[in-house]
UniProtKB/TrEMBL annotation:
The keyword Zinc applies. Residues 266-326 are annotated as: Disordered. Involved in base excision repair of DNA damaged by oxidation or by mutagenic agents. Acts as DNA glycosylase that recognizes and removes damaged bases. Has a preference for oxidized purines, such as 7,8-dihydro-8-oxoguanine (8-oxoG). Has AP (apurinic/apyrimidinic) lyase activity and introduces nicks in the DNA strand. Cleaves the DNA backbone by beta-delta elimination to generate a single-strand break at the site of the removed base with both 3'- and 5'-phosphates. The lineage of its organism: Bacteria, Bacillati, Actinomycetota, Actinomycetes, Micromonosporales. The gene is mutM. PANTHER family: FORMAMIDOPYRIMIDINE-DNA GLYCOSYLASE (PTHR22993). Belongs to the FPG family. Binds 1 zinc ion per subunit. This is Formamidopyrimidine-DNA glycosylase. Monomer.
Amino acid sequence: MPELPEVETVRQGLAKWVAGRRIASVEVRHPRAVRRHLLGADHFADALAGRMVVDVCRRGKYLWLPLDSGDAVLGHLGMSGQLLMQPATVADEAHLRVRFTFDDGGPQLRFVDQRTFGGLSYSEGGAELPAEIAHIARDPMDPLFSDAEFVAALRRKRTEVKRALLDQTLISGVGNIYADEALWRAQLHWARATDALTKPAVGRLLGHVRDVLSEALVAGGTSFDALYVNVNGESGYFDRSLNAYGREGEPCPRCGTPMRREPFMNRSSFSCPRCQPRPRRGISPASRSGVGRGRPGCSSTDDSLASEPDNRDLTLRGSPRWASDR
DNA sequence: CCTGCCGCCTGCGCGC
DNA sequence: TGCGCGCAGGCGGCAG
């Protein structure tokens, strides 16, 4: 399940391998992989042939490849998507969906996706920020992310706190795993009402979200200079550092109480019954407040994690804000 | 306008 | 041994 750390790891690896290369041809092996592209697979392939990839950018869990035409290839990994660099001599993967070849004859870019929840599309004029994802909020690592705005927006919501963390229009990049981890660190139950949380409590939660994401990013980045850019979230290096997710019945690392698993949105939420007590009251019924306005923005992460030829220790390069922030 | 639920997919592991 | 079923889950669409 690629969330921000996994997608960012892929972005860094990809940028190093495809930026500045010209696409020779694109082969769509499975139409569902480009279902978001309404003009069809043929148009998708034709529009990309001859274009040069300028960079690789990310917004939340979306990636896009700005092209020299001012357009972009927009992609989402879904749950099982991978973007792999492979020499042409390597046999096709079982779930290869789209293949990009380059005019330099170097490694191919392959979109591989078992469950096909992910996909690619062609975004006209989307080099700066594809219109399709303009509604996605910035992520908490983004220098332009506003803590105060997030705190206010979350507290305006009439919902459960975990739903808010997963709401990509409020804060992007957080999925089920890191939401549970941040809530565990903040000692908040997932069903806590957003409008009943104090500003300091939301601020602390945000700090934990940031910590968890940055720690996982460091762990996921350990091998990103390999040719094979693995994106399968399940095989991440951060697994052993999880305190809550997937640990039903195991002792809470903080107090030793067996962790519980509860149904949540047709999936699961993991928490500690003692550290994260269930809220007494649920979501307040009705009462309306002001509107929230999303505003447009530019590309989020093309600078702070610039990839360099040899950067195993990405934690220290360019001293990203979150490395020293707490 | 806002919230919450559904459906999309496929592989894996479990129970019978 | 084989089969069916539950589960994993991000996100767009839509109902209420």
